Amino acid sequence: MTHSLSIEPLTIKPLRGTTFGAVVTGVKAAALDDAAWREIHAAWLQYALLIFPGQYLKRDEQIAFAKRFGPLEFEMAAISNVKSDGSLRIEADNDDVMKILKGNMGWHCDSTYMPVQAKGAVFSAEVVPSIGGRTGFADMRAAYDALDGPLKARIEKLAAHHSLHHSQSKLGHQTKKSDGEYSGYGLHDGPMPLRQLVKVHPETGRKSLLIGRHAHNIPGMDKAESERLLQELVDFACQPPRIYHHDWTAGDAVVWDNRCLLHQATPWDMNQPRVMWHSRIAGNPASESALASP
After folding, report:
1. 185 within domain boundaries
2. Domain holding 42: CATH number?
3. When you count CB atoms within 10 A of the terminal residue's CB, does the N or C end of the chain come out lower?
4. In a domain, 3, yes or no
5. Mean pLDDT confidence for 11-39
6. CB neighbours of 139 closer than 8 A, spacing ≥ 6?
7. What is the pLDDT of residue 4?
8. Residue 34 falls within a domain, yes or no?
9. What angle do CA 130, 59, 30 make, to 5 degrees?
């Protein structure tokens, strides 16, 4: 007697109650044929965040999946409170890695502090805590659309500098000093990129806000006024229905579009291990380069 295998079809189901995001099932991200890839890439441009439950990606599989979206800024980095020797990082020690983990809890875009902003990222969960440690995402396309006309017109003309030194210094992180295992990625001595507050997506043409914790010091404004405007924009943008916080299950993988979403880490009990893997997709210099490097 033979049994036919029941294969679930590729399904892309939009998240409920939010302006973006979709859950993808019936596919193995590590083994996409060309037709499935085209459908997934189109959905990624539409929804900006795709969630793939139960993938359990191995290192080479995650890197290969990320490369489907383009060249990588870096192949794989651990985002974790577990040291390389397997011991837990002590929160009270507050070393460089812990300071970066805490900094990531502010809303941000990746690599806006680099000469070329990242295109996106693949992020996967290996070990998750029993509670907490969600990752939040916020739709900057819907946020821009929701602004009133006069504010849109005002910010269209504005730009802001972006710096990881700046954003970490607000947490008391003396980024010129090294006291831990953090590689120092992003803490460069080069110029602070200048980026417009309103970004046009190079593939969809949609406008979005380019804000977040790395943005500061809008030229033509005093620092207090600049800080106030940027914080007001974040506060307005990052609220329902424009946000989604993902509760991780081990094996989950997501890919997001860094050109139109902000994201943030959230707290967890750091007596419990959390091991996540991040592959960062490089931006196209034609569309993701900074305005200037004064």
Report:
1. yes
2. 3.60.130.10
3. N
4. no
5. 97
6. 18, 19, 20, 48, 242, 243, 260, 261
7. 40
8. yes
9. 95
